[in-house]
Amino acid sequence: MNEAYTLSGFAVGAIVGLTGVGGGALMTPLLVLLFGVPPATAVGTDLLYATLTKAGGTAVHARHHTVDWRVSGRLAAGSLPAAALTLASVWYFDVDRGLFSHLISGALGVALLLTAAALVFKARVQRFALDHLSDAWHMRRAKLITMAVGALLGVLVSLSSVGAGALGATALLFLYPTLPTVRIVGTDLAHAVPLTLIAGLGHWLLGNIDWSLLAYLLLGSLPGIWLGSHFAVKVSERWLCSGLAALLVLIGTKLVF
Q1: Left if phi > 0, otherwise alpha if psi is -120 to 50, otherwise beta: which for 96?
Q2: Would the CA dihedral through 130, 188, 123, 115 be positive or negative?
């Protein structure tokens, strides 16, 4: 079983390296549906897994000055309090473990379907924003809407571990369509690190972390991410994202229904 965890980490890491998304969207349902890991444990473990893997990517983007820290801060201003409040509510109201697992499974399924839609319509969202949103609109509303989007991501990520990647990037493409793609990716990664850390620590306090599982996943994912990144330039992003979106729809539908 330990070797299977490491192999799964390698496979998911390779997909993340190829596409830039798919970590939480694939790892959590894989743990739940294939290995029978309780949903709450799968989400909590995956959140800390995401923190460690995305921290490395953020460091690279920071060295290349491809992180917009102002926009990342706006997202965090909404997401970090929302994540903390969501998990504090679960603890304070002493939500039944069975009910909590059912809630997480449903949230995970919805998050996967939203992520699939974000992958499919990402380019159209950016084109719409460029064509219809003026500079004056951004000056008046972008800051508050960015914080509101961050709050929504905070709740979704805390309950499902999914959303900080593709959903966050798509929201940024809509709100800041003139930002270069590389800065969108860097900013999204920089925001995901503190969000997944806060949510992961919250799940740790709730007893939802499997530390040995986390170690085996990392053992496979780190070389997988390196290999996937190496071949990313040789594979069509369109086909990769389409295939990933179709897979997420199948898994999300199974979890929701």
Answers
A1: beta
A2: negative
- Cα separation, 163 vs 158, in Å, equals 10
Residue ranges of the alpha helices (H) in 161-236?
166-175, 181-205, 211-231
Give the integer Cα–Cα distance in Å for 38 and 105.
10
Provide the token pair at 42. Answer: 């799968």
pLDDT of res. 138? 60
* Rounded Cα gap, residues 20 and 52, in angstroms: 15
Residue 107: closest CA among 124, 121, 90, 88: 90
Q: For residue 143, with 0-12 CB atoms within 10 Å meaning exposed, 13-18 middle and 19 or more buried, which class applies?
A: middle
Contact 43, 107 (CB under 8 A): no
Alpha-carbon 68 to chain mean position: 18
Low-confidence ranges of the chain (pLDDT < 50): none
Give first-to-last CA distance, the chain, whole Å. Answer: 28
48: three-class secondary structure by DSSP = helix
- Computed on alpha carbons and rounded to an integer, the radius of gyration of the chain in Å comes to 17
Please give the single-letter amino acid code of residue 120: V
Element counts in the chain: helices (H) and strands (E):
11, 0
Residue 80 is predicted with a pLDDT of: 97
CA–CA distances in Å: residue 54 to residues 9, 44, 140: 14, 16, 31
Give the C-alpha separation, 77 to 70, whole Å: 11
In this structure, what token pair is assigned to residue 218?
């990392």
How far is Cα 130 from Cα 4, in angstroms, rounded to an integer? 45
How is residue 234 annotated by DSSP? Answer: G
